[in-house]
Inverse folding.
């Protein structure tokens, strides 16, 4: 970091708090390419300017300049679907199919262990992992969403907290009524908070009554709140939907009027052409979780077909219990590889497309595209730096492709959230890593039989 | 590292050069589970004993003991297929199909740039990356195989060098005759070397005459040398084979008598049930390269079906030009995920199976299973340690699954090759990283137009 004491001489220049310079910057703004010899100026919590080093230094005078010698600057990643606290079940139930995994492992484990302290410690661990892999905004769907929101605030990152609406009684809510009640209170608490969005989190069409679906529709319009739901996760779910509704989950939501720009449909590994068209017509967002869908043998979301229809696709890690990491760049790579295989076309989902899915498309899905998702003047300074000096990146012909196709999570060196440096050369600034790991060790000993 | 000066007091104990202790050891030996509170004793280049810390310390007296506090010990990984020097083309031609990639990018690039210095510098870079990601033995198929063998020797790791037998003239050989001639000389040079195996490397059935295939069969039996060939890489190759031979590549090799335990068939994304049976009957080895096959949209090797038939499957990274990294643990994860999707069964290819593919099965494919591939008494001390203290591994219920399903290449802390520590807490001991990166920077500037 260089201090720039002499900014008296720069009267014509705009003031900035700091400038970061790096050999490459990928803003992900529409129509832009990788900027070489780049810089970005930050004032307060927002981006004041993005361009070449020369451009930025001719327009801004900053109190500090940080020069990164071998890094690529990118927007902070947006993890559009997960269950942060479930990180405490990471690796507990391996190599099992979705229904067995839920019925025989996850749900009994949750019944036994989930309380507010579980959610606090598990979410903290997840946030640590997410920051270290470049995620500055995450969506969460889990019990005790008020605890999740607090943890995100404490860490200094952004979150969409989708509170559970699920018909079976659980540690957090004895009924859907109680869920709604607590969810509304939560929404009220964060009504004016720029970092926390509160959304409806109906688990799935099979775990909610039609009556409650109708309520969600009404309330979501009243509160202008998003809805995130697991939908068509695998063939077994689809079969269950048909047995129950006489039609698919997508058609059922359509019949009840829920398909719309506030809906975030997670997984959707099984979609007909007509359902894809319904998503497009209604501006539904799709959240693709390739690793979880593969690991649970659920299927592959038809990303190329959705993109052709004009549907916005974001990426999610899902919970660490079915992944087993919260590494969104890895999801981006897998999304690209799977699409190429699925279409038998190596040009499908190129690196640029999957990077957009991990950034601006995620912001769009969460209704935050005017604030985050790309490095553009006026947007929040949510930004990451990836150090590409390692031998596994050389010779660096194409920084964008290489970031996607190398395991880059461990190369994320810096993370800024709303202008605040919360990961500084791999050191966490907003959280106490040692204390968090200690709490996790305690949970390991408790959970392990 | 602790020095143990007082080994006069241990007259009943067997002497060992050093002992490594770690909380976990996965030997990959048949029928063994993860050993907790483990240790391994090394004498000279070989493993003297493997067991719990208590067992090993009650049997051996070592001059040094290295205590790793948060690590898993594993056999060195075996990368059974690659083109090391092509690392210099990493990221040069992205998101293109196999035939375009070869005809319009790779082959013209090779014609322009490949010479002995290209192969030296590219192979060095690849070896650096492979050691850092835990690979202690690799198979290579490229021009100037004598240079590749020298580089492997210098780095202290093991290699199978498959010399090219390809019918079009190239920088290394004007004709297949010259290729054979140089290959025989190379075989002769390393006849008694325990670290270098020289094999035949016919590129593919479509790039060689039947006459040369027949010669390879005869010579491979005479020299007891292996044969590695790209086979049924994608549907287009299969079509070409049918046009040329009136049958598939596998059937063609079968008709000419080449299917046998010396044959290593790389890729095989397209196989009929009969061809799988032919592989099983003839003990052919399959080398699965999941990332490359996905990235080039070639297809997916039917691993579950091959395993059920009893065929040995190893893993390869292929070259970095179609991957873009040399990270075998990542290939293991992708092999598991793809098999689960392909079979619509989350129990397919569990973590243990893909770890075997990355270690003992690779050793078996290269004919080295009596020497490497598992941590067993009498085998070479080719071993790695992975540091699982990072938050992305916690809480650690299942070290094996977590190593496979986390991007673990950057967590490889130590690598021993034949008892020699060549990566010591991420520091390369046998190679000059700075000098290698400098040579690579020069190649980047030359190749980049």
């Amino acid at each position: 970091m260089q201090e720039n004491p002499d900014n008296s001489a720069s009267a014509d220049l705009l003031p900035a708090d700091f400038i970061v310079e790096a050999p490459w910057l990928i803003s992900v703004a529409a129509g832009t390419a990788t900027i070489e010899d780049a810089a970005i100026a930050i004032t307060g919590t927002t981006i004041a300017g993005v361009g070449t080093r020369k451009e930025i230094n001719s327009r801004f005078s900053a109190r500090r300049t940080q020069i990164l010698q071998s890094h690529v600057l990118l927007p902070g990643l947006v993890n559009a679907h997960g269950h942060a606290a479930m990180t405490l079940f990471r690796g507990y139930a391996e190599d099992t199919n979705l229904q067995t995994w839920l019925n025989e492992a996850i749900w009994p484990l949750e019944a036994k262990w989930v309380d507010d302290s579980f959610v606090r410690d598990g979410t903290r661990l997840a946030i640590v992992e997410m920051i270290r892999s470049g995620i500055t905004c995450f969506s969460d769907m889990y019990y005790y969403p008020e605890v999740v929101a607090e943890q995100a605030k404490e860490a200094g990152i952004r979150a969409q907290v989708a509170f559970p609406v699920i018909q079976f009684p659980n540690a957090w809510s004895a009924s859907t009524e109680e869920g709604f009640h607590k969810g509304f209170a939560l929404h009220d608490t964060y009504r004016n908070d720029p970092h926390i969005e509160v959304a409806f989190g109906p688990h799935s069409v099979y775990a909610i009554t039609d009556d409650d679906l109708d309520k969600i529709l009404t309330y979501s319009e009243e509160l202008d709140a998003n809805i995130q739901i697991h939908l068509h996760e695998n063939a077994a779910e689809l079969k269950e939907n048909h047995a129950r509704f006489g039609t698919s989950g997508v058609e059922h939501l359509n019949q009840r009027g829920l398909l719309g720009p506030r809906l975030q449909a997670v997984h959707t590994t099984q979609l007909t052409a007509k359902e894809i068209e319904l998503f497009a017509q209604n501006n539904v967002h799709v959240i693709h979780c390739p690793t979880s869908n593969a690991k649970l043998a659920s299927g592959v979301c038809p990303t190329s077909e959705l993109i052709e229809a004009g549907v916005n696709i974001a990426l999610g890690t899902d919970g660490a219990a079915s992944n087993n990491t919260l590494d969104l760049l890895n999801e981006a790579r897998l999304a690209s590889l799977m699409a190429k295989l699925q279409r038998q076309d190596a040009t499908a989902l190129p690196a640029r497309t999957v990077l957009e899915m991990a950034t601006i498309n995620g912001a769009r899905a969460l209704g935050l595209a005017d604030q985050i998702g790309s490095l553009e003047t006026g947007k929040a300074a949510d930004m990451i730096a990836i150090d590409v000096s390692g031998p596994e990146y050389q010779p660096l012909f194409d920084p964008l492709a290489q970031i996607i196709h190398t395991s880059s999570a461990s190369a994320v060196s810096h993370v800024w959230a709303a202008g605040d440096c919360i990961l500084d050369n791999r050191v966490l600034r907003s959280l106490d890593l040692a204390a968090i790991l200690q709490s996790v060790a305690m949970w390991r000993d408790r959970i392990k039989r």
Remarks:
- The radius of gyration of chain A is 22 Å.
- Residues 190 and 210 of chain A are 28 Å apart (CA to CA).
- The first helix of chain A runs from residue 53 to 59.
